[in-house]
Amino acid sequence: MQAANAPVFQMECGRVWACTNKTAGWNLHTGNGKREYKRLINFSTPFKNKPDVLVSFALLDFINDEGIDFRLNCAAENAATHSFELVVSTWLDTEVWSAGVSWLAYDAVMAQQAGAMIFSGRVDFHKSDAGYQLHEGNGPRELVKHVDLPKRFVNTPIVGAALCKVDCLNTSNVRVAGEAKNVTISGFDVVFKTWADSETWAGSVAWIAIDGGLQKSKVGQVLAGTQDFSRTVNMAYNLSDGDGTRSIAEHLVFKKPFKTKPFVVPFLSSIEVMTQPRPGESRDLRVNCDAENATAHGFELKSSTWKDTLVNSCKVSWIAYGEALGTDWNANNAGVIGPDNPHPPVPHHFPMVAAAAFGFGHHANDDDDDDESSSSSSSSSSSSSDDDDNDDDDDDDLGHVAKKQKTGAASAVATAVDKPPAAAAASSSSSSAAPPAPVARSTSSLSQEDERECKVCFDAKINTV
């Protein structure tokens, strides 16, 4: 039975994208030393209690000059009931053309209810850590740190890990990943890794743990998964050669349909970018992910790059959240999902959780237009170290494992995915001079500010028995 006065739980999420020639105050592409871009994010609906805010990368766009390493950090600061401050920073001589950050804010008090708990945090890794070998040597290397949850969960949680800081040496190709493993009701392991001849000086992995009971709640439904994009998995994979805007997409089908169209957010859980494809040759690091065409039954998951960047492989993880079959939602305002308002005026691809670069494990937006890239959507489409002297640390964390399913050469990995149908029809934008910025896919127009804010706020009655 659902209590008559069940508690209300609030979440809001979005994405911020800032770039060199479109965003006032962006100075990460030039100069030296510590440089920051800050933006105040106002919540569409104030929280009753001070929220926790999770942030992580959604898009990376580094300038590759010889001898300059790839360094970037994102953090949420000064969180209050009405807003928080997003900080994106670099240091030393790194040049960042643009960056995309996804964020999730949730009521930290209401998130401690038994059976519906959510906790988040951040784990830092550095070459000074005992056992750290990612900055030297060859072959697979990783460092594992254990996280003890503040409280024991009723159900095994969905836990995801996301890259929120990278510090990769420009001595070879960039290969880096973060993931969660060995999840129990009391804790899990966070893994930070690289492979081949890549050298990674430091990094941070954001994480979020969500009670697994929310996957089968009668109030709302949470599904999650991870999709591998590479030549070995996708016959039509085109991100590792060619030029111009290129994308690869897989159509995923939810194992359990939603009652209405859910919100879906994707994030990079692993990247392998050929910044030095041949001796003496350097190419910029550009990679983005997106979720499109969501329905109650599934959606298209996409990874893309642009200009001359070569992405050898990447993994895109995702979370879908929405109204479950038989749900009785409490709709009190335009930003709340409910029977009378199943699709709030926000892009569908920003669900209850947000943050780029998540890898899933279970048991064992504001955007600017940029002259440098452009978005596309299709099953496959194309058109034409130094010491880390600055760390911006903030507490952030997410993930859930998956079972792999194949359709031809494509393989869908997801806890929530059944066998995918045929690949969706291809479509792409042809401009190679603008980054694949996420595009709003709703009938409502978005703010025309420097960055686009895409938010979701909902009140969900928590089930009590």
The shape is globular
Number of contiguous helices = 0
Strand content: 35-45%
Distance between the termini: 5 Å
Largest sheet: 9 strands, antiparallel
Order of helices and strands: EEEEEEEEEEEEEEEEEEEEEEEEEE
Number of strands: 26
Query: What is the typical, i.e. mean, pLDDT?
Result: 73
Care to give the gist of this entry?
The protein has strands spanning 8-19, 35-42, 51-62, 70-77, 83-90, 96-107, 118-126, 141-148, 158-168, 174-181, 187-194, 200-210, 220-230, 246-254, 263-273, 285-292, 298-305, 311-323, 358-361, 376-377, 380-382, 403-407, 410-414, 417-418, 427-428, 456-461. It is mostly beta strands and 465 residues long.
Characterise the protein shown here:
This protein is mainly β. The chain is built from no helices and 26 strands. It has strands spanning 8-19, 35-42, 51-62, 70-77, 83-90, 96-107, 118-126, 141-148, 158-168, 174-181, 187-194, 200-210, 220-230, 246-254, 263-273, 285-292, 298-305, 311-323, 358-361, 376-377, 380-382, 403-407, 410-414, 417-418, 427-428, 456-461. Strands 1, 3, 6, 14, 16, 17, 21, 24 and 26 form a nine-stranded antiparallel β-sheet that branches. Strands 2, 4, 5, 7, 9, 12 and 19 form a seven-stranded antiparallel β-sheet that branches. A hairpin with a 5-residue loop joins strand 4 and strand 5. The radius of gyration is 20 Å and the shape is globular. Mean pLDDT is 73; it is low at 1-8, 328-365, 368-378 and 382-465.
